[in-house]
Amino acid sequence: MSPAWREWIGRIAAPAAVGVLMLVLWEALVRAERIPPYILPGPVLVAETLWTDGPSLLGSLLVTLRITLAALAAAILLGGALAILFAQSRLLERCLFPYAVILQVTPIVSIAPLIIIWVNDTFLSLLVCAWIVAFFPIVANTTLGLNSADRNLVALFRLYRASGWQTLRLLRLPAALPFFLAGVRISGGLALIGAVVAEFVAGTGGAETGLASRILEAGYRLEIPRLFAALLLLSLTGIAIFAALSWLSQRLLAHWHESALPEEE
Amino acid sequence: MEAGAFVSLLGPSGCGKSTLLRIIAGLVPPSEGRVRRAGDARDADGGIGFVFQEPTLMPWATVRENVYLPLRLAGVARVAAAGRIDAMLGAVGLRGFETVYPRELSGGMRMRVSIARALVTEPQLLLLDEPFAALDEITRFKLNEDLLRLWQERRCTVVFVTHSVFESVFLSNRIVVMTPGPGRVAADVAIDLAYPRDAALRTDARYTERCRAVSRLLAEAR
Question: What ipTM was assigned to the predicted interfaces of this complex?
């Protein structure tokens, strides 16, 4: 067997085969045991529901996606800015970092109701919730990255009397890039989770509802196949976000970072 | 220290050679005493060039960008620096590698980039901190010879930290032998071998004889 074939089997065919096998077993179990669809629908029925309800679910997905991406963008901007601020002053970092931690460890479900009361606009309140969940990994990772520039390179910049701005732009920011991108990859998934959780707490209502409301609604009405279809859509979205951010990270680091290098033979 | 001299600081690990070098560079404040430089080399036109034990390159930047760094920090525009960077890369034998990233280079070539970066500002003082310690012997010999050639072309003052007797005798016209715990100067010897020196010197009896003498000094110092 040629190495290319072995590679293809190991990377794609084998995991895919496991997935197909699980689906077949699932379908077989549902049919053999005659499990009613409102308890557990088979994959075939879920696929059918996804096809028929697709257009209306897609509209809801778009709402959730908009909140997710807006929250991720806000997390990148504010998280990155905060990390740069921390890198400028140890005192500032010591003063503010604990509160970032507090914000991170407080379960979003418990503060979401407050935020929904305080912020009048539904979209904005959901955005704030998703942002709170998403921003911490970016702050923590980027701060670490900014502080982990090569000591000798820092000394070299000092020797050449580089200004603080030069050191930041030419040394600390590039050195922090891999850390920042790792944070963004985590935050992408977290922003989606934050958006969904916040919508769960906010409940249904309003003209535009996201996927979380559709899941709740389907649950109340015992439309379990639709619930599964919405859930599937949500997972696919999460995977797509992660894949897109991984691709971006790979592209940006391709020339130099160990994480982006091809595996050694 | 004489202007234009090639001085080696020779001694075992932990005798304070590297620290002394960093004090000369002004990176570490001396615990007592003062460093006097003619004018202040740091304020002089080319400033100080420093080569670390590791190549210490920016992995995200190409060879050309790495060599451009000191000029960039000094505010020299890219266009104005281009000629000097090209000349410098040619002098260290890296022509054609301008757009390559450091990870694609061998250890010896990375060190060449590091030397080019240190020399591109045409410094009056070049400091090297065991730059070739991690390289294989064949590469080290070649770089020794190239360093001598670069020094002779530029006539800058060099302070070279090493723990190799053979390397220090081959390169320098003055060797300062240091001892550990507490770090102090044990001997200060002149090496009266004429430049230019080349690979043939390594098998020359006068060379081996001086190596033996310096080795003896190093052994006595302990």
Answer: 0.89
